[in-house]
């Protein structure tokens, strides 16, 4: 049995599992309450961040790496174009840009704006993270002028990566997405896999719809 520990970016993992029709269990990890007493989770990830995955003897962290693991181990699937597919370069690029360029930047802007002391809320690093986010977002915007999805005409795991980051930007830092990004998110939200993932992820659902 596959177990996903924690929501947050774990939503990406749950979404992929739903798209692939794999069975899993979602185990809550309460970061706000603190993970110091959550021995089972800390044994998997002593660094204490979410999500983590357990699949038999396999334990992993890093949401995009987990997506690649599931796609590789339980594929092949059209959600991950093969290396000789013309869609592969764009797929790889946006799969990683969704975390490294977008979600990671939003995460630090969000921390500064929502958690840091008043005097730190607009510090240099928070502004830099915001600039990184907006510059990387321009690549998403350009791609949406060319195609409906990040890898081209079909939905792939790159959309799970980028789509989650855009939801995060909208909700965590109140970023005003442009029309093409809003239409893109609307397309993603219509997917059965997305709907089932949101139904499974209570904390994410409550946060995004509040
Ligand atoms: N690059 C990592 C980021 C993981 C991450 O920062 N997760 C957040 C919640 S979504 C977290 O656990 N933050 C608490 C911490 O880093 O201690 C991934 O994609 O999984």
Chain-wise SSE layout:
Blueprint: E1 2-5, H1 10-20, E2 24-27, H2 39-44, E3 52-55, E4 58-61, H3 63-74, H4 88-114, H5 124-146, H6 157-172, H7 179-189, H8 192-200, H9 202-208
Parallel strand pairs: 1-2
Antiparallel strand pairs: 1-3, 3-4
Helix pairs in contact: 1-3, 1-6, 1-8, 4-5, 4-6, 6-7
The protein binds glutathione.
Glutathione (GSH) binds next to helix 3 and helix 4.
Which properties best describe this structure?
four-stranded mixed β-sheet, globular, alpha+beta, 58% helix, binds glutathione, 9 helices, 210 residues
Mean pLDDT over the full residue set: 97
The H-and-E topology, N to C, reads as EHEHEEHHHHHHH
In terms of quaternary structure, the protein is single chain
List low-pLDDT spans. none
- Cα Rg: 17 Å
Helix content range: 55-70%
> Strand order, biggest sheet?
2-1-3-4
Count the strands? 4
Span of the ends, CA to CA = 32 Å
Structure commentary:
The structure is a single chain. This protein has helices at 10-20, 39-44, 63-74, 88-114, 124-146, 157-172, 179-189, 192-200, 202-208, and strands spanning 2-5, 24-27, 52-55, 58-61. The protein is α+β, with helices and mostly antiparallel strands and 210 residues long. The protein has a 4-stranded mixed beta sheet, covered by helices on one side. Helix 1 (10-20) packs antiparallel against helix 6 (157-172) and helix 4 (88-114) runs antiparallel to helix 5 (124-146). Glutathione is lined by residues 8-9, 31, 48-51, 62-64, 99, 107.
């Amino acid at each position: 049995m596959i177990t996903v520990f924690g929501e947050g970016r774990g939503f990406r993992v749950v979404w992929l599992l739903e798209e692939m029709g794999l069975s899993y269990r979602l185990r809550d990890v309460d970061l706000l309450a603190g993970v110091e007493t959550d021995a089972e989770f800390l044994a998997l990830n002593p660094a204490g961040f979410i999500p983590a995955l357990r699949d038999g003897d396999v334990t992993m962290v890093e949401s995009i790496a987990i997506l690649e693991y599931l796609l590789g181990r339980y594929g092949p699937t059209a959600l991950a174009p093969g290396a000789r597919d013309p869609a592969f370069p764009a797929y790889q690029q946006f799969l990683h840009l969704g975390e490294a360029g977008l979600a990671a930047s939003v995460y630090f802007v969000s921390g500064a704006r929502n958690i840091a002391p008043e005097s730190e809320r607009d510090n240099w690093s928070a502004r830099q993270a915001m600039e990184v986010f907006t510059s990387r977002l321009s690549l998403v915007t350009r791609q949406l002028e060319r195609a409906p999805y990040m890898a081209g005409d079909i939905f792939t795991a790159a959309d799970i990566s980028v789509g989650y980051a855009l939801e995060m930007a909208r909700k965590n830092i109140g970023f005003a997405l442009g029309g093409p990004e809003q239409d893109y998110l609307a397309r993603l939200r219509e997917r059965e896999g997305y709907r089932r993932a949101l139904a499974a992820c209570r904390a994410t659902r409550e946060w995004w719809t509040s």
